[in-house]
């Protein structure tokens, strides 16, 4: 195998697949990247057996072939090379020479035949969405995933394709985030899966090199494929597609709909960014609890601790009875940061009832959002 490749393109491809690599000491080859050179492309593949990643980068291939090399070490070497053009050549003994003008590195690898292939999906259901939309939807709920190992079914984002919409859901038992998108889903195409948290973070990091992501899934696996744009100047050397294939979290996701309050709540319209700033400042003295005191046309956000106290006030659109309710400030800031709309709804009732952030569907906007946050007792 022999090829020449742009250093920055090579580095970007290696970086994209590196975070998938696991820590299974029993299978050293899982620390490696499979490098395949053919037809003017270098294909890079990694896997930890639960999640696999593959991308293609353009290169000048003079001799086809493949090898596996330790991905983190190769990534560091390529990133530090002084020259922009990198040459890679392999011998018959699973060793690669990486060189530029004035630098030569000999890296010991392993035979590519030992590398476990990425799984192929059979009988899958498939949908296509815009890249920016699916990443935005994930980011609007992923902060609410559980980190508790015992509640493994909650350590991920629940995807549900049903009737006329796609729903993404995450909860850790203290808050619930849901986003819905209108879309046509035929009855035979309906389905659901729980996407593991590691895979969620990899999807959120997908580079802006394509407009569409296809989602294919079976009962056990799900694959995301980002089609790379044809425009050569904006893809950083990437070609064809970026492909991620993952096991799904086994088990049935709990009935999240029963957590969403159905009673009549008070309703206030708020400036999202202003509330975010006020909660952030109040939390500087109290990072465990802030209290929202809601009055006609005004909301006070207070924090108090042994350090001292803080009070922030902001205008709101509200004409109901006065109310006070306390929350963990991080549970307020997470949805406020993830939403992109300027104005959102805050629904509440009393200090023992949850608060609900809402963004409703509007004409021209197919997305809706809801976040339920459990209160903290107000003293």
Notable features of this structure?
DNA Polymerase III, Chain A, domain 2; elongated; 379 residues; alpha+beta; single chain; eight-stranded antiparallel beta sheet
Secondary structure blueprint with pairings:
Blueprint: E1 2-6, H1 7-18, E2 32-38, E3 41-47, E4 51-58, E5 60-63, E6 65-70, H2 71-80, E7 85-90, E8 95-100, E9 103-108, E10 125-130, H3 131-139, E11 156-162, E12 165-171, E13 175-182, E14 191-196, H4 197-204, E15 212-217, E16 221-227, E17 238-247, E18 266-271, H5 272-282, E19 290-295, E20 298-305, E21 308-315, E22 323-327, H6 329-338, E23 343-348, E24 355-359, E25 367-373
Antiparallel strand pairs: 1-5, 1-7, 2-3, 2-6, 3-4, 4-17, 7-8, 8-9, 10-15, 11-12, 11-14, 12-13, 13-25, 15-16, 16-17, 18-23, 19-20, 19-22, 20-21, 23-24, 24-25
Number of strands: 25
Domain count: the total is 3
Mean pLDDT: 92
**Assigned CATH architecture of the largest domain:** Roll
Would you identify the regions where 5 or more consecutive residues have pLDDT less than 50?
A: none
Describe the structure in your own words.
This protein is of the alpha+beta class. The protein has 3 domains: 2-114, Roll (DNA Polymerase III, Chain A, domain 2), CATH 3.10.150.10; 125-256, DNA Polymerase III, Chain A, domain 2; 260-373, Roll (DNA Polymerase III, Chain A, domain 2), CATH 3.10.150.10. 16% of the residues lie in helices and 43% in strands. It has 6 helices and 25 strands. It has helices spanning 7-18, 71-80, 131-139, 197-204, 272-282, 329-338; strands spanning 2-6, 32-38, 41-47, 51-58, 60-63, 65-70, 85-90, 95-100, 103-108, 125-130, 156-162, 165-171, 175-182, 191-196, 212-217, 221-227, 238-247, 266-271, 290-295, 298-305, 308-315, 323-327, 343-348, 355-359, 367-373. Strands 6-2-3-4-17-16-15-10 form an 8-stranded antiparallel beta sheet. α1 packs antiparallel against α2. The radius of gyration is 25 Å and the shape is elongated. The N and C termini lie far apart (70 Å). The model has no long low-confidence stretch (mean pLDDT 92).
